[in-house]
Design goal:
By secondary structure, this protein is α/β, with parallel strands linked by helices. It has 39 helices and 39 strands. The strands form 12 sheets. The chain has a 5-stranded parallel β-sheet with strand order 3-2-1-4-5, sandwiched between helices. A 5-stranded parallel β-sheet has the order 16-15-14-17-18, with helices on one face. It is globular and about 100 Å long. 41% of the residues are buried. It comes from Rhododendron simsii (Sims's rhododendron).
Length: 980
């Protein structure tokens, strides 16, 4: 074989460059990557560069702007491929000059990787971008340099994950915006394939001084065809919204950089059809898939499977890393440990953004903040990916708002900065502005607003000064030309709704309500989690760039009078209303000593509830957008729902509440796996609690004699448990999407109790829940250890990992959920004291894994059912883990045996099995049978202590017996009494 050409890739750490480097190395070419010194020390590039090295790629330190280093690099190779970014296209004249000087380069591939720039009908600013690439073509030809141009058309990883929908992070499920009439055809190529075809052309004489068009026939689709194929995949018809060309052109003109460029390129491809409206002439070029038919390129049909499910195990192994999603923006939150800041950190991390929190050294040693900061740090091990920038952590960067150098260093690592600093630090944000200007790479700055629109307020002192400071920061941002979004979140529900704006109360009023003014101006009350969600949604959305994001969902706009009326309706009682005239409010503010907190709060309330400053203006498209209109997929908490939570929480602890307070209608519950071991207990608990209860059962189950009696008891349970309610068996199957959707449409809550063999099939439940869209809560099949806090060995490790995978899928789809960690089933462990091969508790000897000291939890199955159903309508368990760990059910193995010895009046011989022997037995087992699986579970529970070796943090979980003290659970001692 002829010796393969040595290839130099310039821009190898960029978006398409890394795929070309990979393809070159895989093809056996001696591969060189020109990287700047700064790239090697960049944490974001370090892993990529390490990957290059491990693939045998030679790193050459140099720079396009350093002629000497460029010439030195070119002297070592035969072929040069440029994959530099759009901002450096003209710098390729320096590569051309270096190639001319070196004189031996066999082929140059300039940075194209888009449309064929000699066949476009683009408008500005894309017109200029294409013209610059054409200019480079002409310079190459004028210099007589051998070349190949590669128009790769669209990157699949850019366009297909959202179907080219602006502002989305996943394919559309309801409606799709189509530029033009949707008929011109475009080409969508997977990035690995682009890399492969490019490298194939390197030593191919047929592509010398030609254009290599990557236009595989199975990847050519019109927008309409693309949408139709997606509709077929998801089994749903989308609303198609067509945007006429004149409106597209207007959008391009009115959009800021870089979105005007993106829209203009889309106009070229989707409206003008510039990727497919010409015939490839053999004198000009060739089509890649015809030239290289051996390349198995990725088609859109295969790509679309990837988009349906977030879990890789649905894909072929060879496809698991394909279709790269656009990298999520890196976000720095300043003021992260403050009131609203912690919610934004959580929302950012949950959305998959690399999230950084700038905290002062003093915050780490502050006991009040330490637990929160630990939560930030630990969240990386589960769902969140939070990096704390601390002065005291040597592995991270020092950070302080008042230390310019550390602030610049922190900002250098991110794309977006969100400030949530407190009112006392508002003007200090000029330091953030100065640092952002110095760094120069920040795509968006969100200053600390999170209240009313300060440009449209009628505040009196001291609120007037506070508003003026926020205005001052706005003007400073605009003067510096910093891209920004201002978030007007209006009222924090957590501040005002728990007391209905009543001073001095810690709960909603029951007798009288003091109302400022006449109570008629309308205000807006938003749940803090929703504020954070909308804020993070706006980060990468071009529609919010240099705009105000108003969070004013229609169901959260109430006057104080309306708020009180709603509360009265909930508690079944009329309150005395005491109205305070405006002059008395103003007098009280003026007479308050100094600028104290109560005066400031009263002045803000005057602006909101007397002047109506949150709602007394129209949102004009020229300056702002409304969040719930922009992001209709966000299921925000309404005022009504919030008040229901208050009412319900007080009902649970009714010191001053009458039992006549009407409860909200109980949720309808579907149990999937209801005929299984734990499922039947949950069905029973649901019916006993008065919930309308549905069970999904297969046709084969109905005719199964072993299950028939159980199903009959489900049907008849209404008369036995609750005369007005009943259990409805629904014929359906987890693997039948249509029947699953049909069943889910009837209910509010879904509880899965499927067996371990079907754990991964729960992705089908997740897909159905997403399609239906009305489910208030999903309980996946957990009912054991907390799978995010285990030290399991195989085969238990895989079972735990599958449950964790389902957790991540639920969170990725933003489905409201509760995870139930029920720990050990008492009915499994206690009748034999976890002794293998026995059918009753031991009377002579007890085999104990390990030293018998780690503590475990043993819960009776009826209690697990009861606690699970209790959590269904409880807002305190929403998106939390419900740990069933009653204190009287926590025992070590030694304590359990001692208790049994006491019961039977006899001392047992205790045989301790060291951990290494347990592990050896597991490893030496020929098959992964039930006994080996149980042994691995027991190792996790009784040797590693995985049920009790951590603290339950309020940020992620709650303990059931504390939450529901009215439940009389069965204790371990009571359970053992059954066997004496």
């Amino acid at each position: 074989m002829a010796e393969k050409s040595k290839i130099l890739i310039i821009g190898g750490t960029g978006y398409i460059g890394k795929f070309i480097v990979e393809a070159s190395a895989k093809s056996g070419h001696p591969t060189f990557a020109l990287v700047r010194e700064s790239a090697v020390s960049d944490p974001a590039k370090a892993k990529l560069i390490d990957g290059f090295k491990s693939s045998g790629v030679t790193l050459l330190h140099g720079d396009v702007n350093n002629h000497e280093s460029l010439v030195k690099a070119l002297k070592q190779v035969d072929v040069v491929i440029s994959a530099i970014g759009s901002l450096q296209i003209l710098d390729q004249t320096k590569i051309i000059a270096a190639i001319k000087e070196v004189g031996h380069i066999k082929r140059f591939f300039p940075s194209e990787f888009g449309n064929d720039v000699d066949h476009v009908n683009a408008v500005e600013p894309a017109k200029t971008a294409f013209a610059v690439k054409a200019q480079i073509r002409r310079a190459i030809e004028a210099a007589g340099i051998p070349y190949t141009y590669v128009p790769s058309n669209f990157f699949a990883g850019y366009f297909l994950p959202t179907l080219a929908q602006p502002g989305l992070s996943a394919p559309p499920r309801d409606k799709v915006i189509i530029h033009g009439d949707g008929n011109p055809k475009a080409v969508f190529n997977e990035e690995h394939d682009i890399g492969t075809y490019t490298i194939k052309a390197v030593d191919d004489p047929r592509t010398l001084n030609k254009v290599l068009y990557i236009k595989p026939p199975k990847n050519i689709y019109s927008f309409n065809e693309l949408v139709s194929l997606w509709e077929k995949k998801i089994g749903k018809t989308l609303e198609r919204i067509y945007v006429p060309e004149n409106e597209v052109l207007k959008q391009i003109q009115e959009s800021p950089i870089p979105f005007n460029v993106i829209f203009a390129i889309s106009h070229s491809a989707f409206v003008k059809g510039d990727q497919t409206n010409f015939v490839i002439e053999p004198s000009v070029g060739f089509e890649a898939s015809e030239l290289y038919p051996d390349v198995k390129y990725t088609t859109y049909k295969l790509c679309s499977r990837k988009l349906i499910s977030p879990l890789k195990y649905h894909l072929p192994k060879s496809f698991s890393l394909k279709i790269p999603m656009a990298e999520k923006t890196k976000i720095l939150i300043i003021g992260a440990t403050g009131y609203i800041g912690k919610f934004i950190v959580e929302a950012s991390a949950k959305s998959g953004h690399p999230t950084f929190a700038l905290v002062r050294e003093s915050a780490v040693s502050d006991p009040a903040k330490a637990k929160l900061i630990d939560g930030f740090k630990n969240s990386g091990a589960t769902v969140l990916h939070v990096c704390i920038l601390l002065a005291v952590m040597h592995t991270h960067i020092q950070g302080d708002l008042y230390d310019h150098e550390s602030l610049v260093k922190a900002i250098n690592q991110v794309d977006v900065v969100i400030s949530t600093v407190s009112t006392t630090q508002l003007l200090d944000q000029v330091k953030i502005i100065a640092a952002i200007k110095e760094v120069g790479n920040i795509k968006r700055f969100f200053p600390s607003e999170f209240g009313g629109d300060v440009d449209r307020g009628n505040g009196v002192e001291p609120a007037k000064t506070l508003f003026a400071m926020k205005v001052q920061i706005r003007r400073a941002i605009e003067a510096e030309g910093i891209p920004h979004t201002y978030v007007c979140s209006n009222g924090f529900a957590g501040y005002v709704l728990p007391t209905l704006v009543q001073e001095g109360l810690s709960a909603p009023p029951r007798d009288k309500a003091v109302i400022l003014g006449d109570g008629n101006p309308k205000a807006v009350f938003n749940d803090e989690h929703d504020i954070a969600t909308y804020t993070i949604k706006a980060v990468d959305d071009p529609r919010t760039l240099n705009k105000i994001l108003y969070i004013k969902p229609p169901k959260n706009i109430y006057s104080i009078n309306e708020l009180i009326s709603s509360w009265e309706k909930k508690i079944g009682k009329t309150l005395e209303r005491i109205y305070v005239p405006e002059d008395q409010i103003l007098q009280r503010i003026q007479e308050s000593p100094g600028t104290n907190h109560s005066a400031l709060l009263l002045a803000i309330y005057h602006s909101v509830f007397v002047k109506g400053d949150q709602t007394n203006f129209e949102i004009e498209p020229s300056f702002g957008v409304e969040a719930s209109e922009l992001y209709p997929a966000v299921k925000y908490t309404t005022v009504e729902e919030y008040l229901d939570q208050l009412h319900y929480s007080h009902f649970l602890f009714p010191k001053s509440f009458s039992r006549r307070i009407p409860m909200a209608e109980k949720s309808k519950i579907l149990i999937i796996g209801g005929t299984g071991y734990i499922g039947k207990f949950i069905v029973e608990a649901s019916v006993q609690s008065g919930h309308r209860t549905f069970t999904l059962v297969r046709e084969s189950t109905v005719s199964d004699p072993a299950k028939a009696k159980l199903i009959d008891s489900f049907k008849n349970s209404g008369s036995h448990f609750a005369p007005c309610l009943y259990t409805t068996p629904r014929i359906g199957d987890l693997n039948d999407h249509e029947s699953l959707v049909k069943a889910i449409k009837h209910v509010d809550v879904v509880i899965s109790t499927v067996s371990q063999m079907q754990l991964l099939d729960q992705v089908k439940i997740i897909a159905a829940i997403k399609e239906v869209g009305n489910i208030k809560r999903f309980f996946p099949s957990e009912f054991s250890n907390d799978v995010d806090r285990v030290n399991g060995v195989e085969p238990a490790k895989t079972a735990f990992a599958m449950k964790a995978q389902i957790r991540r899928a639920i969170e990725a789809e933003e489905i409201p959920h509760t995870y139930v960690c029920s720990n050990c089933f008492a009915g499994y462990k206690l009748p034999t004291l976890a002794q293998e091969g026995l059918s009753a508790p031991p009377r002579d000897k007890a085999i104990i894994p390990g030293d018998g000291n780690p503590k475990a939890v043993f819960n009776e199955e009826h209690d697990i059912g009861t606690y699970t159903i209790k959590a269904v309508d409880d807002p305190r368990t929403l998106n939390k883990i419900l740990y069933i760990k009653p204190p009287m059910n926590i025992y070590s193995f030694n304590e359990l045996v001692s208790l049994w010895e006491k019961k039977i009046g006899k001392t047992l011989e205790r045989i301790y099995v060291p951990e290494d022997q347990i592990l050896k037995r597991i490893e030496e087992s020929q098959d992964i049978n039930h006994s080996v699986f149980v042994l691995a579970i027991n190792h996790s529970v009784f040797v590693k202590g995985d049920q009790t070796n951590y603290e339950i943090e309020p940020s992620f979980g709650v303990e059931a017996s504390e939450l529901y003290p009215d439940v009389k659970y069965t204790t371990v001692e009571e359970y053992l009494d059954r066997f004496v």
